[in-house]
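ugh ok so i messed up the first submission bc i forgot one of the chains. this is the corrected input, ALL of the components this time, i swear. 1168 residues overall. if the numbers dont match what u have on ur side tell me asap before i send this to the collaborators (the ones from the other lab, u know who)
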Amino acid sequence: MTGRIVGTSVSRARDADLLTGRGRFVADLDLPGQAWARVVRSPVPRAKLSRVGVEDALALPGVVVVLIADDVPDVRIPIRVSFAATEAAAQVLQPLLARNAVRYVGEPVALVLAEDPWTAEDAAELVILDLELEDVSEDLVASASEGAPRVHAELGTNVVHTASTRFGDVEEAFAGADVIVRRRLELPRQTGVPIETRGLVAEPTTDGVTVWGAAKVKHFNRTATAELLGLDPGSVRLVEVDVGGGFGVRGELYPEDVLVPLAALRLGRPVKWIEDRSEHLVATNHSRGQAHDLELAATRDGRLVAMRGEHWVDQGAYVRTHGVLPTLLPSSHLPGPYVWEAFELTAHAVLTNRTPVGTYRGPGMTEAAFVRERMLDVLAAELALDPAELRRRNLIRAESMPFTYDLGPDAPPIVYESGDFAGSFERLLDEAGYEELRREAGEGVGIGISAAVELIAIGPYEDASVAVAADGRATVRVGVGSLGQGVETVLAQIAADELGLAVEAVEVRHHDTGDVADGFGSYASRSTVVAGNAVALACRALRERAAAEESELAGVGEVRARFERAHPSYSFGAALSVVSVDAETGRVRPLRHVVLHDVGRAINPALVEGQLVGAAMQGIAGALSEELPYDATGQPLARSLADYRVPTSEEAPVFETILVEHPVADNPLGVKGAGEAGIVGAPAAVANAVADALPADAHDVLALPLTPQRVHALVTRAGRPPTE
Amino acid sequence: MSSGRWIAADDRVEVEVRLNGEAATLEATPRWMLADAIRAHGLTGTHLGCEDGVCGACTVLLDGDPVRSCLVLALRAAGSRVDTVESLGTPDALHPVQEALRAARGLQCGFCTPGFAVLGAWLREHEPDADAERVREVVSSNLCRCTGYQPILEAFGR
Amino acid sequence: MKAPPFAYARAESVADALALLAEAGDEAKLLAGGQSLLPLLVHRVVRPTHLVDIDGLDELGGSTRDARGLVLGALTRHAELERAQLEGRERLLSLAAAQVGHVPIRFRGTLGGSVAHADPAAELPVALLALDAEIVARSSSGERTIPARNFFLGPFTTALAPDEAVVAVVVPESARRGTAAFAEFAPRAGDFALASVGVAALVEDGRTSGVRIVLGAIEATPVRATVAEDLLEGEALAVAAIAEAAHVAARDCDPIEDPSTSATYRRALVRHLVRDALRTLRGADA
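and heres the new structure output, hopefully the right one now
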């Protein structure tokens, strides 16, 4: 169906307000009589906690109360992603406030309530923590070893979960291969860093509490908050205001999400909490940190045969709402868009005395793409094949769709339902001018490519309701949210086309759990697919009912529909990066970045392009400059945006986007998600470009980020050579 | 502290400024930054993204110059001109830079946007002939996490 | 990240500022542009009991030329230096100032503040050392002049007495001749330099004299690469000479080693930047 409005780059209604400073972000909300909350956080990574002394803090004028573990329910932050919950993980969930032990720098230990944020911060410094310091493991892999200091004594190990993924006969496949390459690859901890930090304002109501500042998964958080506080879910209301970016890290249920409404109820007055940036870098979810041992086997003529890998994912000191999902996701993405005879992947979820870990845009898939695509280039060099040619010979062809990797009775299969992987890849090479780039690349210029698949549009469902008023305006209600990406515009476009209205006549309401009964939320690039189709179905049902009743649309009342999605799908993407590397300083300048993605159908091409470019920039910086390092004593070293190097415009390349719209049969709108797509293949392409630019005798590119100093070390061959 | 000259850390003081073209009195203590005082005055378009001078979301004009309002004490602004994003345009009458950002889709979440708008308006007025390199230099003052900068550079180049 | 408590006074003159400092005691600090001090304050890394605000003092602004040379008021903003039409070796001030942080930082940050703060990675101290500049310090008992080479003693440590304030910087008149260049390496635009180099020299008939090669962000204070300077003194800035000077400067420096940046890497940057700066110098003269 070609729409009048779907498929056009309609402007967002919210832009004028945001441009003129009329946005309403949570820090802009003030309620009369509000108290300010400040979290007291552990300054050490691992210690026995014998006492939290609040006397000095309480003595400060303007301090209302200081809550410690004894003052709050002894509950745990639950796992939201149920298929990533395990028995062991359930033993290492995070309490609201630390009791008896602290396990990472930044862990909440107490909550100060004061009349203003200056006093609250002063008072937080006066809270006394009686700590008996303990040693920590020096790195991730050490933490997984037998003798490592236990992050949770009760667990008996720091490996909270191990999962295996098998396809075919890996032993046989490796035995029959001509060429085998093997490397250890590493990614650092990274995080989303929205420019707005987290924040909440909570107000007690007659029978419950209202909380502003929610995002991403409001309905789950509403229900979980109610349960943890012993309230009726109907009496807890979560409201999303304008949100300054999410990238996966904002919106999950954190201790503060329960503590702040609890404080409001305890005090009987509103409570406001705004996270500062230094806190944000240790309190908001980290992601990406992992190490991979990966082995690829191939034939002499460049046919991929098998892959064998073991990886360790740093899950931090507690398992939080994502369960062990960060550990599971790489395995389902390592095979990628290629034909393999066999693969065997073992994943370990490892606890460390560091900030807990969740999902950051393109989780697991970005890491898997880096690791695999880097290894494909290593293999290509071994085979003396052009990297593009190696991929050409192995990308799954359109004729093979739907393509399935059957992982046995105990695991869901990997199913690629649609797409033209090989053809889309050719299109990238063609439109980017790959052959010419290769021919004309001067000294110090490198070209890198990547191809990847991305899990999108997780179900199980979303509901939407629509009603048309007498004045011809439609109101659509959905359970997903906005992180700033423009989802309400896209949903309005869909409704406008379905109902034959102008897009300005459609209002999309998604902000308030009191207004929208249910929803799963905005993550995994699902909002347009799952909520979008729900909106389309609701509109069609409305039209059908109006036709059946021979009535105007406005006469029919509100109609609800549900779009169910039994299993997620995968979409294809590819990227090409051109960089220049100064071998003397190690500086990598990204010059050009081309990102292709199969979006099924672009409801709003400009918004999709914006998502691809923004995500790609994050991925490029993920390859070159972003890391959250810890020193040997477990202290996080990045406490400011001066340390955690998100890029400025000077670090940006020229971007080009290619939107592939390959027909999709599994949903009425024919869409695939695109919110994360741009990031998935970016670090891989950039890393391959850097490797391409380096002198032939440089050490292998195997670890991110490729900071100037690290690139310089590769060129001068300082440090250890790549593992064999 | 015998001279009587000192203002104690949490004493509230009135700070007279020329705010968005009109005389105004901000309330602040010595510890408040100009960003805090502006926001407490009801002008919440100026945002705090880091509070240590890196992100630029708090950019305002102080006596005509773009500055990080998180790195200026509120009391220091007494007697000065302060211009915030609210002085540029309204939703029905956008400033040319705001319109350029809108048309180029140089915003997604909008949190960094006021800082860029103030910077862009200043650049346009003071350096209308800024070349591409200068535009890049100015744009690199502020952080955006959503757009990848390409549309912002495009908007400023117009 | 809110500042810890401090008492505040706005000085009405330099004499007034000094009197307020005396009254406030050892844990008081002067506040100029605030671009270095305020981030430390909000991170609660420093906790002054009192802040004496000198940011608005006209008597510390502006610049003049007198018998001593170019006299720059302590409150000269980096942005002013950047735009100043300076010539000869004086141009090094503009080149260095242009590298400080970002545009909005430069509108607030001051020469005097940068000098008194003495961050090893700061750009202007490099320029001052390369120009043989002098820092004018005033206390209630009078004024003295401290040559740049005696002023920077260590990281965030200067020769200023606790009761002294920087009121001006003097650049010798001879600096109006010659050429200069500045090069720095920072991870991102606006980041602190991992290494910086300021070079200045007179060039006559193709031969250099009065060569200064100053390294910043390498050691605890800005340092001159004296052996490299001697190599070039009286010589032409030929490719080989430049390469050797760069090599020697890198060889002889004693870089700080910190968790994120190794001494080895800093040395490599010195070599690269010295070479680049000297090439620019040669090009500027040609």
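quick check: Chain B has a mean pLDDT of 96. that seems consistent at least. The first strand of chain B starts at residue 13 and ends at 19.
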